[in-house]
Specification:
Keywords: Aminoacyl-tRNA synthetase, ATP-binding, Cytoplasm, Ligase, Nucleotide-binding, Protein biosynthesis, RNA-binding. With 428 residues, the chain is α/β, with parallel strands linked by helices. It has helices spanning 3-11, 20-28, 48-62, 93-107, 124-127, 132-139, 144-147, 151-159, 165-176, 193-205, 241-249, 256-263, 268-295, 306-311, 329-342, 367-373, 380-388; strands at 16-18, 34-39, 66-71, 118-122, 185-189, 212-216, 352-355, 364-366, 392-394, 397-398, 405-407, 412-416, 420-426. It has 3 domains: 3-216, Rossmann fold (3-Layer(aba) Sandwich); 229-342, Tyrosyl-Transfer RNA Synthetase (Orthogonal Bundle), CATH 1.10.240.10; 352-426, Structural Genomics Hypothetical 15.5 Kd Protein In mrcA-pckA Intergenic Region, Chain A. The strands form 3 sheets. The chain has a 6-stranded mixed beta sheet, with helices on both faces. It has a 5-stranded mixed beta sheet with strand order 7-13-12-9-10. Strands 8-11 form a two-stranded antiparallel sheet.
């Protein structure tokens, strides 16, 4: 490919490249570029929203460039204020390092790990050693007025919500990360634009060539709100295929074009074809098969596209209506389980919990305790509340009495909601 073709390919789905001319010049140099992404391990999981950026970094790797993942074990103790309406609770260094362990495994599903194209660093390596004089030097690069131009800070300031001084230091700490690794490009979502641009100022202050700010879109959760576990709209890349498939089938219809654009490599024309010919049902199936199939593998394929869809055993021309054509076991099982639940059929592959004899009295157990032991409720009190709201079932029948005793003469299937099942039986 020519430099212009490479640039156009890299820009696909990007929101902004600042400045684009600098990226063109760096690509024309022919040298291996250093592509940076910082991840603060405030949670132990990586979701498909993170994968939008990580897959773009994989594209840089395929072009021969090196990606550097910086685990923000030190900056996570400050807490990134980007997009926050209140001060983020700080974490200890030990907490951030515990969360970081799973990050390393999960990014390996997307990024090549050979040393020539991958490096993993922890920013405590250099931030712990900074002197106060260096912190003052960093802080002198941006004015208070510039800080208050940030939407999140401006909103908090005008509403009277407290802003701690240490939050102002976060962009400088993230920016300084670009100094020791001499980043050519820093990746981030739209909420990171200010921080990425501060990185350019910091590099200039240290006499380095300024990085390019490569800004990718933020992917909403399946219900249209911010992707978050607390909203139950979060799709983790390491979740079981059946779980990933179900969550993708639940993406609200208006977000289907966006998910197909950001989570796959289908062309705009192919996406339009799927949406027009398949409708919401067919488009959901195409999305769920492609993404579930990709992340069920040890290493996500380079392209999640028409050819990959064919490798899964489907034809894009069918636009999702070829339900019985799939030949990849993980997808077949995930799809079958989804439709079993949709038809109110109890799946075969459900966990089994044995109830100890000590929990039984004359072979029976209080129903609330049974659901708690099965792991379907957090406490007996929650189980009773859900029974009152008709949210729990035994053998497909709604449990009506929160104080009932259940005989365990034979195995029983417990159900919470539409798709959480556990088989319980007496045992030791």
């Amino acid at each position: 490919m020519t430099v212009e073709e490479t640039l156009n390919s890299l820009k696909r789905a990007a929101v902004e490249v600042i400045p684009e001319e600098d990226l063109r010049r760096k690509l024309e140099s022919g040298r291996q570029l250093t592509i940076k992404l910082g991840l603060d391990p405030t949670r132990p999981d990586i979701h498909v929203g993170h994968a939008v950026v990580l897959r773009k970094m994989r594209e840089f790797q395929e072009l021969g460039h090196k990606v550097v993942i910086i685990i923000g074990d030190f900056t996570a103790m400050i807490g990134d204020p980007s997009g926050r309406s209140a001060t983020r609770p700080p974490l200890t260094l030990q907490e951030t390092r515990e969360n970081a362990k799973s990050y390393v495994e999960q990014v390996s599903k997307i990024l090549h790990r050979d040393p020539g194209r991958f490096e993993l660093r922890y920013n405590s390596e250099w931030l712990e050693r900074l002197t106060f004089a260096e912190v003052i030097k960093l802080a002198s690069q941006v004015t208070v007025a510039q800080m208050l131009e940030r939407e999140d800070f401006k909103n908090r300031y005008t509403s009277g919500t407290p802003i701690s001084i240490h939050e102002f230091l976060y962009p400088f700490a993230q920016g300084y990360d670009s100094v020791p690794i001499q980043a050519d490009v820093e990746m981030g979502g739209t909420d990171q634009k200010f921080n990425l641009l501060v990185g350019r100022e910091v590099q200039r202050a240290y006499g380095l060539e300024e990085q390019v700010a490569f800004i990718m879109p933020l992917l909403e959760g399946s219900d249209g709100r911010k992707m978050s576990k607390s909203y139950d709209n979060y799709i983790g890349i390491s979740e079981e295929p059946a779980v990933v498939f179900k969550k993708l089938m639940q993406v609200v219809d208006p977000l289907l074009p966006r998910y197909l654009e950001l989570c796959t490599d289908l062309t705009p024309e192919e996406i339009a074809q799927v949406l027009a010919k398949g409708g919401p049902v067919g488009a959901h199936r195409v999305l769920a098969r492609l993404v579930t199939g990709a992340y069920a593998q040890g290493l996500v394929p380079t392209r999640i596209d028409r050819a990959f869809y064919g490798e899964l055993g489907y034809s894009l021309e069918a636009a999702g209506h070829d339900r019985d054509a799939g030949s990849v076991e993980a997808i077949r099982q995930a799809e079958e389980r989804y439709y079993q639940v949709a038809r109110n059929v109890i799946p075969d592959d459900i966990p089994v919990v044995k109830v100890p004899p000590s929990e039984l009295s004359d072979g029976a157990i209080p129903v609330a305790r049974l659901f708690t032991l099965a792991g379907l409720t957090a406490s007996n009190g929650e189980a009773k509340r859900m029974i009152q709201n008709k949210g729990l079932r035994i053998g497909g029948e709604v449990v009506a009495d929160p104080n009932a005793q259940v005989a365990l003469e034979q195995p029983l299937v417990l159900q919470r909601g539409k798709d959480k099942f556990v088989r319980v039986e007496a045992g030791g």
